[in-house]
Specification:
The chain has 136 residues and is of the alpha+beta class. The chain contains three helices and eight strands; from the N terminus they run αββββααββββ. Belongs to the cytochrome P450 family. It is found in: Membrane.
């Protein structure tokens, strides 16, 4: 179940980007980023990069059977700037999934039209589902 949570966070990270300051001059693809300049890493671009994740648009929890390369999976940021509640957030997701899977059944009522990425990932055109309580 942990791998499902990690893959969900990779596909639809709630943090789209962050702001950082270059601590040294850096050359990237022929461009100089001077020390002190503000940079904005886009986590979605990193998490959907085929150099880091094979078939990045495919939902594949098995990709987390091995740890990803450093700085390729950062749904809660990284280093000293990482979200301090990241483990609590993952635990809450696991608890919610546990109850959803064990106590309810559901089916998608509308069409699956993918994810729309704006400031936050949301189902494109919504995602109506029918949920019912499982008989005990």
């Amino acid at each position: 179940m942990d791998q499902v949570v990690l893959e969900s966070l990779r596909i639809a990270s709630i943090i789209s980007f962050t702001f950082r300051e270059a601590v040294a001059d850096v050359e990237y693809k022929g461009y100089l980023i001077p020390k002190g300049w503000k940079v904005m890493p886009l986590f979605r671009n990193i998490h959907h990069n085929p150099e880091f994740f094979d078939q990045p648009q495919k939902f594949d929890p098995s990709r987390f059977e091995v740890s990803p390369k450093p700085n390729t999976f950062m749904p809660f940021g990284t280093g000293t700037h990482a979200c301090p509640g990241n483990e609590l957030a993952k635990l809450e997701i696991l608890i919610m999934l546990h109850h959803l899977v064990n106590n309810f059944r559901w089916e998608i009522v509308g069409s699956e039209s993918g994810v729309q990425y704006g400031p936050f990932p949301v189902p494109h055109k919504g995602l109506p589902v029918r949920v019912w309580r499982e008989s005990l």
